[in-house]
ABC transporter ATP-binding protein
Amino acid sequence: MDAIHTEQLTVSYGGNPIIKDLNIAIPKGKITVFIGSNGCGKSTLLRSLARLLKPTEGSVVIDGQLISKWPTKELAKKLAILPQGPIAPESLTVLNLVKQGRYPYQSWLNQWSKQDEEMVKTALAMTKLEDLADRPVDALSGGQRQRAWIAMILAQGSDTILLDEPTTYLDLAHQVDILDLLYDLNKREKRTIVMVLHDINLACRYAHHIVSVKNGRVYSQGTPEDTITAKLIEDVFGLESHVMTDPFFGTPLCIPSGKGRILPTAKEFVEKNLVKTY
């Protein structure tokens, strides 16, 4: 069953199509990752799925209904998006940021409730931010700040979460920390997660489903094992590479080639490099 799918989706800027006749299906309860070169249309596609961009042609469907037909607050209960590089107002605390996630549930008749309080408390606990709840967001480290934004999304309680490059500007340790958090969330609560990532190997490690985008069109979609090949890396990224099986995780592992260098075989690579780490 699909959480979201598109039908002949076309999105344009200034009359120029960025996404063209796109048909994709996002599996429900799985992690989907969009990959592709810079400017290929990944972020545009993500924003279109969240109704932040209006299609020129075609449509986005969520739970069997056109996304354009959903009332804003009802859609926010179904779907949440974290854009790339969000900025919090100066001096806003972590707690108050996370509380913003409960906005779709507020009205004149329904004010702040015990359920709202519990959702915020749970989101802070899941992201390990309880001790930082009273700290200003702009005083946090990059990894902590990203966890605070994710906590806000978790408090929203949406079934589907969209994240545009959630690991950008983070060092490797913090990238893995954020992706582990999202992986655990998916495994525990079966929430559908859709991300744009640049690191192919991390995408393969964490995704159940990968959509590769080239020049505004889908090049391939499927499991990492079925889609990530040396030919895909060359066609989509213009880079020669060797794709082998990661000996630790069993997922595809992409080894890019340098200019004028001959790639070792998988056996040679393991013997010369990975065995030494045991």
User: Anything to note?
Assistant: The chain is about 35% helix and 25% strand.
